[in-house]
Amino acid sequence: MKKILSFLFLALSLHFYGQVQLKGIVKDSLNTPLELANVIAIDKATSTLESYGISDAKGVYKLALKKNRTYKIQISYVGMKNFEQILTTKEENLTKDFVLQLDSNLDEVEITYEMPVTIKGDTIVYNADSFQNGTERKLEDVLEKLPGVEINEDGQVEVEGKVVNKLMVNGKDFFDGDTKLATKNIPSKAIDKIQVLRNYAEVGQLSGVRNNQDNVALNIQLKKGKENFGLVM
To answer: Cα–Cα distance between 213 and 220 in angstroms, integer?
Structure first.
């Protein structure tokens, strides 16, 4: 968990000219820090996602934003009411803490913006559209933009430094789980979600045994109507 969070924070590091850092703590009404809260910044002028972060074990989040811009900050956490605030950056870094309130009407919560990354247990889910700008053609182009994910010199997909040994599409093996074939053939426009399944076990195996600790699988969820993209699985 700490590794993937470090990748997410690294992706937001302030090595870019003209940026400022927004950081702070996400906590509940009892002043308890909330770990794994999703924090995003949407540029008010363009309505595009500018930056995102996930709070760490101490509730700390960090966002890299442009100077002199106005953003809609949105925060979500399971069991809490979604939070929104308009914030304008200037020339200096900002510190801002956020307090979330318990939500007694979870079924009525309206999701105003889909989070780029969500983490639940050993599963990390990336919303593919959040990482695309229109230049991507295949799955590999999207994977290279995901924090914590890379394609090595041998064309293998790695997550947190571990080679992905199985790839599925909509829960089914893609050509016996061949990751190289999948990354070069699945079109980026067909991808809805990319699920990283850590400590993955085949059906019939125990998911918690030590032998599974280095097993990483990917499950590519396709958009509706895009199930047939030119290859027969």
So the answer is: 21
